[in-house]
Design goal:
The protein is an alpha/beta fold. It folds into 2 domains: about 15-180, Rossmann fold (3-Layer(aba) Sandwich), CATH 3.40.50; about 190-310, 3-Layer(aba) Sandwich (Rossmann fold). It has 10 helices and 10 strands. It has helices spanning about 15-20, 65-75, 110-115, 130-135, 150-165, 165-185, 215-220, 240-245, 275, 295-305, and strands spanning about 40-45, 50-55, 60-65, 80-85, 120-125, 140-145, 195-200, 225, 250-255, 280-285. The protein has a 4-stranded parallel sheet, sandwiched between helices. A 4-stranded parallel sheet has the order 8-7-9-10. The protein has a two-stranded antiparallel ribbon with strand order 1-2. Helix 5 (about 150-165) runs antiparallel to helix 6. The longest helix has 21 residues, at about 165-185. It is globular, with a radius of gyration of 20 Å. The chain starts with 12 loop residues before the first helix and ends in a 6-residue tail after the last helix.
Length: about 300
């Protein structure tokens, strides 16, 4: 997820709307700063965008600014330290009960300050750059992750484990993910790549372009995205362009409240071979989550694209 106009890699802002120590800066006078921690219990970390951040060695009050971060914290077994999440954080069910601190693009600085966190974890895959740096400018301990590919999703899991004093758990979780990905790669070794069009949103028609983690992970399902070479993160695509490319398969992310229409009944879509042959697949939104949960959705897609390799 990316906000337009930001230098970070995000999903388009339209999807977010439809789906729904410090860095050295001084706190604003009169504001409530992060909970104080003795210097001996702090350490310096370098986040994924190169910022040096001083953090407690064992943070007890954590705020998550993205669903993927929240999911990692739960999978690490440290959700008891999670004191605030966004309105988009809905997994597991318990996350819905956590105090809300705003949405992905507009975290509420006053609520976050009042919560007195000793660690705030943001993500370039969803958060607005200026909003995150504003929180850092208030003297809050903000650590930014950047899960832009399969490899960096694994690195992010390990990073979150390290900065939350759960390093062993983070390494074990990342290793388990890699083991499943490696097993999938072995199973699909030598399979002809399926030319695939991935719909991230239907109206307007959006697809993942160059540098997106969706296109990277699709390769692990034995698929090649026909939009992977477009030099935009999530470009608009026209039906005419799609007909000219005529992919083997069309895949669409399932969105609650915005179901994919019957493409056969829509003017022009029947010209696509994938539509005529019934190779239009709805997939879980987890394929758009840069968290460990994407592996479940990836394995399911691989079975649908290459069932002969799973018999």
């Amino acid at each position: 997820m990316f906000c337009r106009g930001c230098s970070w890699h995000h999903f388009p802002a339209i999807l977010l709307l439809l789906l729904s120590g410090c860095n050295g800066s001084a706190p604003i006078p009169g504001s409530i700063s992060a909970r104080s921690v003795p210097d001996g219990n702090r350490c310096e970390q370098i986040d994924a965008i190169g910022r040096r951040v001083t953090l407690p060695r064992h943070p007890d009050r954590i705020v998550s600014l993205a669903p993927s971060v929240t999911e990692v914290l739960y999978l690490l077994g440290i959700s008891d330290r999670l004191i605030g999440v966004t309105t988009h954080c809905d997994w597991p069910e318990d996350a819905r009960q956590k105090p809300k601190i705003g949405d992905l693009l507009n975290p509420d600085a006053e609520l976050i300050l009042a919560a007195r966190p000793d660690l705030i974890i943001a993500s370039t895959a969803g958060n607005d750059r200026s909003a995150v740096l504003k929180l850092a400018g208030l003297g809050l301990p903000v650590f930014v992750t950047a899960p832009r590919s399969v490899a960096t999703i694994l690195e992010t899991v390990e990073q979150i484990g390290r900065i939350t004093d759960s390093e062993d758990r983070g390494q074990a979780l990342a290793a388990a993910m890699k083991q499943r990905l490696d097993a999938l790669d072995r199973r699909l070794a030598g399979v002809p790549m399926t030319r695939l069009f991935y719909i991230t949103w239907f109206e307007p028609l959006l697809a993942p372009g160059q540098g997106t983690f969706e296109n990277d992970l699709l390769r692990h399902a034995g698929a090649e995205s026909i939009t992977s070479g477009i030099a935009e993160f999530y470009p608009r695509y026209s039906l005419e362009q799609l007909i000219a490319q005529d992919p083997d398969v069309v895949v669409a992310a399932r969105h609650e409240g915005a179901p994919l229409p019957d493409l056969k009944s829509l003017s022009g879509w029947g010209r696509l071979r994938a539509v005529r042959e019934g190779r239009v697949y709805l997939v879980s939104q987890l394929l758009q989550h840069p968290s460990p949960r994407f592996v479940d959705a990836l394995e399911d897609l691989a079975r649908r694209l290459h069932p002969e390799r799973f018999r």
